[in-house]
TrEMBL record:
<dbReference type="InterPro" id="IPR013328">
    <property type="entry name" value="6PGD_dom2"/>
</dbReference>
<keyword id="KW-0520">NAD</keyword>
<protein>
    <submittedName>
        <fullName>Altronate oxidoreductase</fullName>
        <ecNumber>1.1.1.58</ecNumber>
    </submittedName>
</protein>
<dbReference type="InterPro" id="IPR013131">
    <property type="entry name" value="Mannitol_DH_N"/>
</dbReference>
<dbReference type="InterPro" id="IPR008927">
    <property type="entry name" value="6-PGluconate_DH-like_C_sf"/>
</dbReference>
<feature type="domain" description="Mannitol dehydrogenase N-terminal">
    <location>
        <begin position="5"/>
        <end position="227"/>
    </location>
</feature>
<dbReference type="Pfam" id="PF08125">
    <property type="entry name" value="Mannitol_dh_C"/>
</dbReference>
<dbReference type="InterPro" id="IPR013118">
    <property type="entry name" value="Mannitol_DH_C"/>
</dbReference>
<dbReference type="InterPro" id="IPR036291">
    <property type="entry name" value="NAD(P)-bd_dom_sf"/>
</dbReference>
<dbReference type="GO" id="GO:0009026">
    <property type="term" value="F:tagaturonate reductase activity"/>
</dbReference>
<keyword id="KW-0560">Oxidoreductase</keyword>
<feature type="domain" description="Mannitol dehydrogenase C-terminal">
    <location>
        <begin position="246"/>
        <end position="361"/>
    </location>
</feature>
<dbReference type="Pfam" id="PF01232">
    <property type="entry name" value="Mannitol_dh"/>
</dbReference>
Length: 377
């Protein structure tokens, strides 16, 4: 069965975020149709999920957490994924049929998903038996095969990787690779003008897998998508927001949620707290929570207020507070503290820089103490 949505990646995040949205929208008659999932790597855990998804019996998503202070604990059965394939085994079918029929392409291929592989070559463009190793090369070959059959009909492409302006980023990589491989200029123009590349931001903590397939997720969910002419959405859903100000949502997430995680990680490192301590446990320690609350209230929200975004920021802080206090979420600070130095620069320094640009007389002592010797980076 060919579906209008094809998804690259089997991550539990996609299962509990985009796929859940499509499932709920399908039941309300507001989705394009079902989803075909493609495993792009040889990860054995992904292979187990593909096998389970291919059975067609669906999977559970358990929603657990706090919503406006109220405990939520419910389970949903998701049946939007109707087919599942492995690129290594089903490449010809994916290339010649499934991708040709797709209106929407979704991806979430982890941190290294946009990296190229030196072993890939232009041979894969015309040889159906040559399977590229990297995700960008796979996409280029699939789009090239589609272009030859449908030169005027490109799909809407939604990368969900956690990269700023992810649609522009993936588009640039593919156009660069097409030029490097000496592709026809008409194909390069097709990539540039006939395909719709969505920049978007995803926001939901999916904390645990359910074996063999499924996930545990928090109640909060957002998929903010930059408005673009010709872009076709996979579905209509309350958690999907089309916007002309994607950067506003990026700021909120970076300066409130991500900053909050890094501040708690800094407190955890400073205090020599237990190795397995979670975000929720850290929020139960008065001294650590006090540091974070003071940063949010006195050092971050005034910057949003000065930008005319204070109301949205205050509401977002309230939702993030509920998320951090989630009694069901085992989000360990040891994981958050990885690459801690880089995260401090990326998540805290821009708040200080923006305050200075706005000419605010804001001391921001807690942020400056957290940045420490990095405050001038």
């Amino acid at each position: 069965m060919h579906t209008p949505i094809i998804q690259f990646g089997t991550s539990r995040f996609l299962l509990a975020h985009v796929d859940l949205f499509v499932d709920e929208a399908l039941k309300a008659g507001r989705a394009l149709g079902g989803i075909s999932v493609v495993q792009t790597t040889d990860n054995p855990l992904s292979r187990k999920r593909v096998t389970a998804l291919a059975s067609g019996s669906g999977y559970p998503v358990r929603i657990r957490g706090l919503e406006r202070g109220e405990r939520i604990d419910r389970e949903q059965h998701i049946s939007a994924v109707t087919n599942a394939y492995e690129a290594a085994l089903d490449w010809r079918l994916i290339r010649d049929e499934l991708f040709q029929a797709a209106t929407v392409v979704i991806s979430n291929t982890a941190d290294a998903g946009f990296l190229l592989n030196e072993a890939d070559s232009k041979k894969c463009l015309d040889d159906p038996g040559s399977i590229p190793k990297s995700f960008p090369a796979k996409m280029l070959c699939l789009l090239h095969a589609r272009w030859k059959e449908q030169p005027d009909q490109g799909p809407s492409i939604f990368p969900c990787e956690l990269v700023s302006r992810n649609g522009d980023k993936l588009k640039g990589i593919l156009i660069g690779l097409a030029k490097e491989w000496g592709c026809d200029e008409a194909f390069v123009q097709y990539l540039d003008t006939r395909c719709a590349w969505a920049n978007s931001l995803v926001d939901r903590i999916v904390s645990k897998p359910i074996e063999p397939v499924g996930a545990v997720a928090e109640p909060y969910a957002l998929w903010a998508i930059e408005r673009l002419p010709g872009l076709v959405l996979p579905c209509s859903h309350a958690a999907i927001t089309e916007t002309d100000q994607l950067e506003k949502y990026e700021r909120l997430k970076l300066w409130v949620l991500n900053l909050g995680h890094t501040v708690l990680a800094e407190c955890w490192l400073r205090d020599g707290a237990p190795a397995g301590e979670t975000v929720q446990q850290a929020m139960s320690v008065a001294t650590r929570r006090d540091v974070l609350e003071r940063i949010w209230t006195s050092e971050v929200l005034p910057v949003f207020n000065a930008m005319g975004e204070g109301h949205e920021a205050s509401e977002y802080v309230a939702t993030v507070r509920d998320r951090f206090l989630n009694p069901y979420l085992e989000h360990q600070l040891a994981d958050i503290a990885k690459n801690h130095r880089e995260k401090k620069v990326r998540r805290l320094a821009p708040v200080v820089e923006q305050s200075r640009k706005l000419g605010l007389e804001l001391s921001q002592p807690q942020i400056m103490a957290t940045l420490g010797e990095l405050q001038h980076v």
